[in-house]
Each structure stands twice: as structure tokens, then as C-alpha cells.
UniProtKB/TrEMBL annotation:
MF terms in GO: DNA binding; DNA-binding transcription factor activity
Pfam family, one: MarR
Domain HTH marR-type: 1-98
SUPFAM superfamilies on file: Winged helix' DNA-binding domain
Record-linked SMART domains: HTH_MARR
Protein's name in the database: Transcriptional regulator containing DNA-binding HTH domain
Superkingdom per UniProt: Archaea
Protein source organism: Methanopyrus kandleri (strain AV19 / DSM 6324 / JCM 9639 / NBRC 100938)
Keywords on record: DNA-binding
InterPro entries: HTH_MarR-typ, WH-like_DNA-bd_sf, WH_DNA-bd_sf
Signal peptide region: none
Amino acid sequence: MVSADDLTYREKLVLLALYEEFDGGPAGVKKLAPVVHMDKTKVSRALNALEEKGLVEFEHMEGRRLTDEGEKIAEEIAEEMELPEDEGPYQCSDCGRKYKHLRLKCAVCGGEIEVNKDHPDAAKAEWNLERARMGYL
């Protein structure tokens, strides 16, 4: 059985996007790429890896959909990222919700994520956020 720890960061982002943005799917590469801020090739690779692990399944002409196991793991990842508001250097530019783990979009309102400059890890967080926006993570 696959666990959340067995997934790469990209795979987690794609799994979460299917879970949160598309209610489990189906969604194709063209729909997922702008949501996770990755190019289509990286999204396709992540989807293929998730399919090999049994977390998503392919529907002809529709895209990929979460399996039951994929939905359970996506729920775990979502809960892991939903930490109290006073933790972490990442925050939503619209609603102000703070996150400990790197995200590109707010799970609550969909706003852009920025770095809280007053946080002790702000420099590292800014570097990671910029790398994620450029598709390096």
C-alpha cells in the first residue's frame, strides 16, 4: 500500500489538485497544469507515476480520476497541510491564512500564496516559493 511519504512533491501537488479543485476528477493535463503551476510534461509525468501507484485511473476522453486509495491519501495530505494559522512562513495574499508547507494557491479562497517577511524562515521560504512557481519543484 502506498503512503503519502512515498510521493514526490509534484505528485502530492497533482493529487491535491485533483482532490480539491476537481472533486476527485476527471481532469486532464491541460486543466491541471495551470492549477499546480507546472508545465504539461511535469504534470503528465506525475499523473503517470500516480497511475502506476494505483492512486489515479485513466478515463478515455476524460482524463484521470482519483481511485479510492488516491482519495484517502489526498485527504491525508490535505489535513497535513491544514495547520493552525499561526504556523509557517507562507500566507494567502487574499485571506491571510498561513501555511507551514509550500503551496501555490490557498485551499480556502484560491488566492495566491506569498511569504510572510517577518517569519524566521522567510528567506528559505521565498526561495522555495520562487522555485515552485518556475516549475523546479
